[in-house]
């Protein structure tokens, strides 16, 4: 399918099934509402799970020497 300008699709639900992958070759993907993924989310620098693991495991230098405990506000 090729469109000369804009292509609008209006439906209660749209499902795309691809056996290998879907590629969006565009400079920007914009969602006007929530995005939900049942699997992992990652970019060129790492995954969101990796970011959570680093945050949850970090500590800080203590005021009187040593280090603080791990964060008590975990990123789940």
Structure description:
13% of the residues lie in helices and 5% in strands. It is elongated, with a radius of gyration of 21 Å. With 76 residues, the chain is largely without helices or strands. The model has no long low-confidence stretch (mean pLDDT 86). Strand 1 and strand 2 form a beta hairpin. Strands 1-2 form a two-stranded antiparallel ribbon.
Number of helices: 1
β content, as a range? 5-15%
Per DSSP E runs of 2 or more residues, the count of β-strands stands at 2
From the spread of the alpha carbons, the general shape counts as elongated
Helix-residue proportion: 10-25%
Helix and strand content put the structural class at little secondary structure
Strand numbers in spatial order across the main sheet: 1-2
Query: Mean of residue pLDDT?
Result: 86
SSE layout and pairings?
Blueprint: E1 42-43, E2 46-47, H1 48-57
Antiparallel strand pairs: 1-2
Summarize the structure in short.
By secondary structure, the protein is largely without helices or strands. The chain has one helix at residues 48-57, and strands spanning 42-43, 46-47. Strand 1 (42-43) and strand 2 form a beta hairpin.
Features:
elongated, 76 residues, 1 helix
